[in-house]
């Protein structure tokens, strides 16, 4: 990816450094010299960029990352100190993740292939203090954080489940499903039900959707006898879908799930089974989102570029929060509501992938979105982008949009007369997540499903 991008840029540049460029390679070392073992090479985009190599050792492995980098910028929270030599002379750095060396060089082709250590790669007397300094603070922080978390969990009084029900006359009647204390749902789901809890004063209003396991209703949750109410969504499972309700309830009950881009859960209830209402029903009560589901929305609307950035960014952030490591963006052509088996056949056996219309790529920002979609669907699972990486891409995209002022409110379908502004660069994704750019709104929620992700 990076190589490809660098090549895109290099056409217009006259003299830049030629560097090794691999996100990850396993070095081969002899005495105090390691060869990066990286088979990829790229011209740097800018003349001021130097060749850089980062050598890392953790408990499990040793790896090297090679790249072009502008020494004026921070790299992994480090400023390159010495980069004017033709040789890549490794210097140890403070790192929270283990042992880390970095070098920069300039002038000789692929000078970041040969990594020269002062006193051997396995450390020396000089390295030991660095290791101690690097490891002690994170260890201390981890111990303190664990103790604080333990004290918080053991001493914290039970909270009311939702801020947004405060002030209503049913305060305190809610079962404590979403407060994290009761989040360990056992396989015998019913054991965790609070059968004594008074049911919420909910009046169903209209059926708004149907999934595979349940119906979803818009409903009124009364706040008090004065007639004040709040609109909520009630997902109603029949008795035969009891286990799906249990699964979904267990997922929602996990306090770690809460996120502004994930459906907001209020509580779960068991209803019916009485003489007046003999049919057993299982409810999940959550915030109501009045814009319908994403598929219908996209079918009925043409998004502006800014809306697309916002929507895709918020979906990606929700997914990243769910720790979806391989996030397929876009969908190959499938029937409506495809089952797991047909998706498996289509994607794994037949290697189906979403069609990307050629017209999309005429828009410079959409080129990046399409490239991201393609990478998310890479046949090689190792090469697929993580959801965090997608979030980072959209953050960078938004930032570059602002900087270049190319984000207009025009529809994303490009006009041929429209001169294309300069192509923003894709971020070279690292695993750390960046802050959320204020450019994005947080109006897209992701619903959780009672299916297990591992079924795909
Ligand atoms: N909180 C909500 N607010 C408003 N509408 C909702 C809400 N949750 C679900 N819906 C509507 O109900 C429909 C069915 O949702 P449901 O969660 O049952 O299934 P799904 O997630 O679409 O699919 P699956 O059954 O495969 O999980 C959705 O497509 C959406 O239109």
TrEMBL record:
One of its GO terms (molecular function) is metal ion binding. Its EC number is 2.7.11.30. Residues 202-456 form the Protein kinase domain. Its main location: membrane. It comes from the Eukaryota. Gene3D superfamilies: CD59, Phosphorylase Kinase, domain 1, Transferase(Phosphotransferase) domain 1. It is an enzyme of class 2 (transferase). Pfam families: ecTbetaR2, PK_Tyr_Ser-Thr. Its cofactor is Mn(2+); Mg(2+). It is a single-pass type I membrane protein. The chain crosses the membrane at residues 127-152. It is found in: Membrane raft; Membrane. ATP binds at residue 235. The keyword ATP-binding applies. The keyword DNA repair does not apply. GO terms for cellular component: membrane raft; plasma membrane; receptor complex. Keywords: ATP-binding, Growth regulation, Kinase, Magnesium, Membrane, Metal-binding, Nucleotide-binding, Receptor, Serine/threonine-protein kinase, Signal, Transferase, Transmembrane, Transmembrane helix. Belongs to the protein kinase superfamily. TKL Ser/Thr protein kinase family. TGFB receptor subfamily. This is TGF-beta receptor type-2. It comes from Sinocyclocheilus grahami (Dianchi golden-line fish).
């Amino acid at each position: 990816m990076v190589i490809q991008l660098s090549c895109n840029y290099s056409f217009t540049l006259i003299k830049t450094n030629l560097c090794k460029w691999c996100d990850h390679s396993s070095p081969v070392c002899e005495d105090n010299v390691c060869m990066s073992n990286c088979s990829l090479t790229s011209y740097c985009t800018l003349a001021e960029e130097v060749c850089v190599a980062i050598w890392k050792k953790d408990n499990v492995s040793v790896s090297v990352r090679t790249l072009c980098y502008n020494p004026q910028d921070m790299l992994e929270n480090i400023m390159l100190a010495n980069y004017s030599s033709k040789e890549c002379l490794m210097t140890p750095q403070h790192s929270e993740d283990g042992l880390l060396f970095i070098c920069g060089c300039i002038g000789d082709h692929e000078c970041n292939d040969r990594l020269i250590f002062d006193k051997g790669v396995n450390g020396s007397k000089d390295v030991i203090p660095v290791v101690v300094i690097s490891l002690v603070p994170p260890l201390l922080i981890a111990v303190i954080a664990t103790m604080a978390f333990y004290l918080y969990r053991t001493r914290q009084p039970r909270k009311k489940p939702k801020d947004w029900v405060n002030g209503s006359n049913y305060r305190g009647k809610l079962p404590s499903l979403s407060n994290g204390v009761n989040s360990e749902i056992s396989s015998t789901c019913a054991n965790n039900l609070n059968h004594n809890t008074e049911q919420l004063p909910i009046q169903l209003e209209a059926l708004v959707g149907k999934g595979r396991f349940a119906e979803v209703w818009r409903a009124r949750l009364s706040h008090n006898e004065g007639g004040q109410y709040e609109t909520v969504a009630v997902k109603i499972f029949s008795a035969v879908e009891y286990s799906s309700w249990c699964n979904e309830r267990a997922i929602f009950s996990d306090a770690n799930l809460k996120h502004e881009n994930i459906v907001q859960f209020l509580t779960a209830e068991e209803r019916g089974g009485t003489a007046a209402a003999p049919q057993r029903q299982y409810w999940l009560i959550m915030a109501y989102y009045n814009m319908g589901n994403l598929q219908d929305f996209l079918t009925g609307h043409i998004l502006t570029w800014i809306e697309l950035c916002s929507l895709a960014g918020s979906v990606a952030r929700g997914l990243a929060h769910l720790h979806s490591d391989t996030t397929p963006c876009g969908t190959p052509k499938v029937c409506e509501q495809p089952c797991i088996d047909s998706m498996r056949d289509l994607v794994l056996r037949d290697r189906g992938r979403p069609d990307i219309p050629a017209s999309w790529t005429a828009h410079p920002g959409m080129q990046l979105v399409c490239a991201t979609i393609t990478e998310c669907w890479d046949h090689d699972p190792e090469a697929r982008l993580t959801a965090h990486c997608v979030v980072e891409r959209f953050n960078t995209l938004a930032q570059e949009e602002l900087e270049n002022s190319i984000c207009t409110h025009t529809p994303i379908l490009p006009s041929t007369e429209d001169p294309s502004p300069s192509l923003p660069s894709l971020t070279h994704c690292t695993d750390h997540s960046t802050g959320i750019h204020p450019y994005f709104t947080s109006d897209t929620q992701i619903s959780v499903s009672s299916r297990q992700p591992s079924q795909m």
